[in-house]
Amino acid sequence: MSRAKVVAMSHDRSLNQVRRPVAGRIRLACVLSALGALAGLAPFVGLVELTDALLATPVDRDRVAVVAVLIVGGLVLRGGLMSAALTITHIADVRLQAILRRRMIAHLGRVPLGWFARNSSGRLRKTAMGDVDALHQLVAHQAVEVTAAAVTPLGALAYLVILDWRLALLAIATIPLYIAAYAWMERGSNEVIRKLDESNARLGSALVEFISGIAVVKAFGRARKAHAAYRQAATEYTDFFAAWVQPMNRIEALAGLLVSAPVVGLIAVAGGAWFVSQGWVSAGEAVACVLLACVIPVAIEPLGFAAMNQRGAKAAAQRIHELLQVPALPAPKSPQRPSGHGVEYRSVRFAYDGHEVLHGVSFTCEPGSVTALVGPSGSGKSTLATLLPRFHDVTGGAIHIGGVDIRDIDPAELYRLVGFVLQDVQLLGGSIRDNVALGRPQATDSEIADACRAAMIHDRITALPRGYDSVVGQDVRLSGGEAQRISIARALLADTPILVLDEATAFADPESEAAIQDALSRLVGGRTVLVIAHRLATITSADQIVVLDRGQVVETGTHTELLAVRGQYARMWDAHEGVAA
Fold first, then answer.
1. Domain count along the chain
2. Where is the ABC transmembrane type-1 domain (predicted)?
3. φ, ψ (nearest 5 deg) of residue 358
4. Which of 33, 160, 289, 456 stands the most exposed, by the fewest C-beta atoms within 10 Å?
5. DSSP designation for 129
6. Taking residues 423-441, what's their average pLDDT?
7. Which of 66-80, 217-231, 468-482 is the least confident region?
8. Is the pLDDT assigned to residue 219 strictly greater than 50?
């Protein structure tokens, strides 16, 4: 079986699974659409009767009146049934979008936090927003329109066959050529759509990165040369799309001409006139042939667009399905509660993509103490720290809190125990109050204000026109240092007994550094703290310093003890002092 066919089958399964919650509603809408399409043929049947009645002598006025009522009734019935079908599918579309977005939000809330660091925010946004929106046409319109597009010509052909089989052949004389043209265009289209989606995803990801870094790029005068990935992604997408579309446009124009009303109508009129002259059909039947011949291609035209829409929807459904299949953070069947706030790393190993980066790391963080992790870049500091709040799970050994393996602690309970303040501050697009209270939504205004005072940011907030109701990104643009103090206030309010701290002042502006240090001193008080140290001068008072190199512990002790040993830490300190001097 070819790869393209395997991919197509996978997309079909994904689409069926994603669409399953509203499949029953869609089927009901299709039934109504089919009945509406058949009702829409009543006016054409009536026109045959009406033509014959008007050409008869004398004119049967009662028959004409009955036929006119039936024509109007058919049109009204068709409109009512199609309207009901579209109403059902639009309601189904809204319901499906709500279900999918709720499922994604709920599922992403259970996904390990480390997964988000490995996956582009542009791709995630495209799946959560764009791909769900891409299902709208398929669910809300396509099922109804395709059903009508299929039933209308089939019903029309059946009626023409009843009148005279030659009329049926005349009505579809150009359809085989139209189908052949579209079949030629469809060759390899599944693979083309897949590559187009991949290219579009790369473009979206590159665009997010470009926008995120443009301020830094312009500041250093590298705006023209930076972000080559974005330019390359945009060029690849444009070139690929143009190379695919240009030849298709010519074929599509020819196919459209073959089923256009003038061409089809001319063939039907000429053939119908000849049939009447031969005495094979009546004038009314010839009129019906002309009208239905023009209706059939118009009715089946949505089928071509439906095929393209469905391919795009299948690819979107595949990405949604893959997102919902991302392994969730395993939750314990019988959760345990820690008996204290001490942290112990026991022979911890961790491998990423088959490459082990931690090799049996062991150390203990006593309750209420500060432990600093130091070492060269790539030594495993950040990996060790992020394993504690289960950004990832260890691949060997264990991490214990209060004597309990963190994998045996309910994730919600774990996040009530372990908080973290990182250099890369993430603030939501809501009010400052909501950002501070993220970890404790039930916190009072007084508690929020107290946390902000302790974080040295309260005065800045109250100086804003809307105060704590100011929306981040709209009412106020916060500097890096101000955003960092908001995150510290958030951690203070959450009041977790264990804290992972990625040295928050490493990239702070000089005006903010002192305020952040004061806020941190209030934050770490009485907590079990694990610090990722970037500047050694900031951790000289730590209760314990763990020196890492190539994923292993090479030294452990206080600042004074490690300097006396004259080992790796001492060499790092001498280098640090030399730079500072």
1. 2
2. 28-293
3. -125, 135
4. 456
5. I
6. 85
7. 217-231
8. no
**Contacts of 119 by beta carbon, 8 Å cutoff, 6+ apart:** none
* d(C-alpha 11, C-alpha 21), whole Å: 17
Task: Using the structure block, give the residue that is written with the tokens 């997408």.
Answer: 237
Looking at the structure, do residues 315 and 358 belong to the same domain, yes or no? no
Residues 6+ apart with CB under 8 A from 12: 314
Token pair of 418, please? 């372990």
Kindly report the length of the chain. 581
Task: Please give the Cα distance from 239 to 334 (Å, whole number).
Answer: 55
Our measurement of the distance from residue 523's CA atom to the centroid of its chain's CA atoms, rounded to an integer in Å, reads: 36
Longest Cα–Cα distance of the chain, Å, equals: 123
Residue 205, burial from CB neighbour count under 10 angstroms (0-12, 13-18, 19+): buried
Q: Tell me the pLDDT tens digit for each residue of 304-330.
A: 667 667 777 887 888 888 888 888 888
**pLDDT digits 0-9 by tens, 104-131:** 888 888 888 777 767 666 667 777 777 8
Q: How many CB atoms lie within 10 A of CB 470?
A: 17
For 376, the 3-state DSSP assignment is coil
**For all residues of the chain together, what is the average pLDDT?**
81
When pLDDT is averaged across residues 345-365 and rounded to a whole number, the result is: 91
Query: Which of 324, 353, 377 is at the close of a domain?
Result: 324
Nearest-10 Cα torsion for 156, 161, 167, 170: 70
